[in-house]
Structure formats: structure tokens, C-alpha cells
User: Fold this.
Amino acid sequence: MRADPLTARRPLLADHDQLGHLGIGARGDEPGEQIGGAVKGHDQQDTRQSVFFDCFSAFDERQGTIFRAESRMMNRATTASPSPLRIALIGAGGISRAHTKAFPLFPNRIRLVAVADTALSAARSLAAENGADVSAFADHRELIAEARPEAAVITLPHYLHYPVAKDFLEAGIPVLVEKPVTHTASELRDLNALASAKHLVLMAGQMRRFGSAARHVKQWIDASPENFGELRSFDAVVQVNVDAYTGGKTGHWILDGLKAGGGVIASFGIHRVDLVRMLGGADFSEVTAIGRFDAPFLNGAESQASVLFRMSNGATGTLHANGRAPRTAYMDSFTLHGTHGSIMEVAGPLRYATTTGAVTQQWGHQHEGWMDAPDSSDPRDDAFVQQLLEFAASVQSGRPPSCNTPEMNFNTIACMDAIAESLRTGRTVNVAKL
Ligand SMILES: NC(=O)c1ccc[n+]([C@@H]2O[C@H](COP(=O)([O-])OP(=O)(O)OC[C@H]3O[C@@H](n4cnc5c(N)ncnc54)[C@H](O)[C@@H]3O)[C@@H](O)[C@H]2O)c1
Assistant:
């Protein structure tokens, strides 16, 4: 693979000054604090925060979301050096520890204060792992009343996202909700209206947007129209052995269309759908889907689906997903082709290449010139960690999150609705607008 010119020209960790022109008051933990064996200072912290704004601002402009997002004033005034945000975690299941690993890394910005899970023993274990002062509850409403968190992260089965997020928003508490943020676009409209009325942050947990390789490739796309150009086509593949997820347990919520809001697409394919939107800088406008509905999936959940897409910029694409892939616990991949360059992630790193005007005509040359997007192994750059920091910074500063606001996430959820309807009816379905 070639050396990456983007990294050489423009480091992934952007310059401190970039915060200024975007009006962001980033702050670091205490200088000299020990992280992963290294002593860090303010600079390391602050530049990490700035990456998102550098990365997502151009995308936002194209989507017209900067204007909409900025028109919402959040409920906390900017403070020079606020104390760590007191966060509750609702759901102590499989993915909860991907979120909690952020707390010991950034103790001066975020603090876990309480965990709720109907399985109280799970809540207690997770709480105990995070400190003696973290309280555990079996009911999130008790947690709201007693722990009084300043923000909450919701990692529950999908059908509980809407009612539980609503309970928090009604109590005046901002929420970061795991993907898919809601079952349906109409639920998202509803939550968005509530969050807007109360000036609270509502953020969708599409964490792939915070991955360092994805951010890097987005920077490359935005750096010059000669790099990738306009998205023309994409092909995505998602293969999951759902038994690996459920441990072979029949009746698990993720198999049940009523609880998961769909099957392999809503639970797993959604990551690639959202990444195509991020990198392609366009929304989905129309889908046509065919599928199968095999056990152990039930209640209308698709076990596999093949979907044709049309996007608002005229791009077309496909997604093939199979939730019963016998030999593949989890694999998702895609290729995207723009007017000037290509991107691929197929059983390896996220890679990108541009033709710089020349079309690759020789078979023997088609694998030349691809660059690997650097994927940071620093735990502080982890996508879940960065997502939580961005959520906390948004809550504390009073500015909207740099991505995954309800407005930005709406097309992803509306696309899930449209695929489900197309699978049911066999028709081509227009993707709803906010
Ligand atoms: N971003 C990713 O890569 C990723 C990966 C896995 C899961 N997820 C998402 O995370 C969410 C949770 O998935 P998971 O794999 O952790 O599920 P899980 O089934 O392992 O955990 C869910 C937990 O919620 C608890 N629970 C159920 N009802 C509850 C209630 N009313 N109040 C409190 N707790 C309750 C359960 O006891 C369980 O411990 C889903 O939205 C899923 O799509 C995201």
C-alpha cells in the first residue's frame, strides 16, 4: 500500500486552532494525568475533540443540517471548566461495556453514576466494575428519581429505545441512544419534537461515524473534489451468524421483528447504510427489497434481504445481508465508487484510491495505488469512546452534537422503515422525509 498523502499533509488529529473558528470550547482533563502508561496534557485531549468538527462540517453543509442543528439551543450554558458530566447507563447487556470503557479514560469529563437493568444482578456487576459509588437499579424510573443523572446512555433492546428515551427527556435528561435510535421514523419525529421543545440533546448511537478510519476517509473526500468526487454507486454486504449473537437462544429479542423492529437489516445492515450516507454525502430516496423470513427470526423479521437503493444525488447501490451465515459470526463490507475515486473495505482495512483523472484500464493495475486509512489503536480514539465524549461535550457546551442529531439520523431510520415496507409489499418505496 502507498504512503498516505492525506496523513502527511494533514494529521488526523487536527490543529488546536481549528476549534477557534468553529466556536468550540474544547477542554482537556487535567494535564499530567496517566492514560495507558503515557502522560498526557491538554493538547492531546483538545485536538482529539476537534477532529469531528473538521471531519463533519463539510458533510453537514451539504446536508443542510448545520443550519437546522444550530437553530436548536441546548439547555446548558457553556462553562469554562465544568465538572465531569454525571451519566447513567440503561441496559447492562452485551454492548454496555463498549460504552463504559470511556469512563476511566476521561475521568475529568465524564463520570458513570448509575446503571439500570431489569436484571438487577447485571446492573450491580457493571456498577461494581466501575466504582463503589456507582449505584444500581432494576428500574430506570427509580434511577431517574434517586440518582438524578445529568445525561443517560440507553443500550436496550430496540423496542425499549423510544419509551425509555422519552422518560428521560420528559425528566429533562439528555440521551444518547444506541442504534437504531427508534423503531420507526414517526417515533423519531416524536422524540425529536420532545427534545427540541425541552432544548435537550438527543443523539443516535451510530458509532461507526466516529471510527478513526471512517473519519480519515471522510476528510480525504472533503479535501478535494478530485479525490473521490460524487458518489455514483455502492455495494454493501453484511453476513452474521445470529447464533453467535444470541448464544443459540431461541426467542431472543433480536430475532423478533416486534422487539427488534426488523431483522438482519435493522439490527446489523443499518451500520453500512449509515456509513454510505456519511461517505457519500447524500440521503436515500428510494428502496426496493426482497428477502426471506426463516427461523429462528420471527414476527416478520427478515433473516436475509437484498436491497436496491437510489440516493438523492442519483447514486444507486445494493445491500445484501444474511443473518444466518453459518461460518461467519460477523462480517460487513462495502465498495463505493465516485466520479474520481473508489473506497473499499473488504476483509481488511478501509482503503481508498483516486484515478486523478486517469481511468484504470489494465486488470493488472487495478489493485495499485490503494491507500489504507490509518485506524488508530489508541483506546481514546475508539469509536464508542469518541461518541460518548462528543455527546458529553454537546450536553455541557450547549451546542448540538457534530453528527447523529435526530435531523442527521432521520434518513437512516426512514430508510429502515422503507426497506421493511418493501419487504412486506414487494413494491419500490420512497424514503420518508423529516
Ligand atoms: N454499535 C454496535 O456495534 C452495537 C453492537 C451490539 C449491540 N448494539 C446495540 O445495543 C443495544 C443493546 O444491545 P445488546 O447487545 O447490549 O443487548 P443485550 O440483550 O445484550 O442487553 C440488553 C440489556 O437490557 C436489559 N433490559 C431489558 N429490558 C430492560 C428495561 N426495561 N430496563 C432496563 N434494562 C432492561 C436486559 O436485561 C439486558 O441486560 C441495541 O440497540 C443494539 O442494537 C450496538
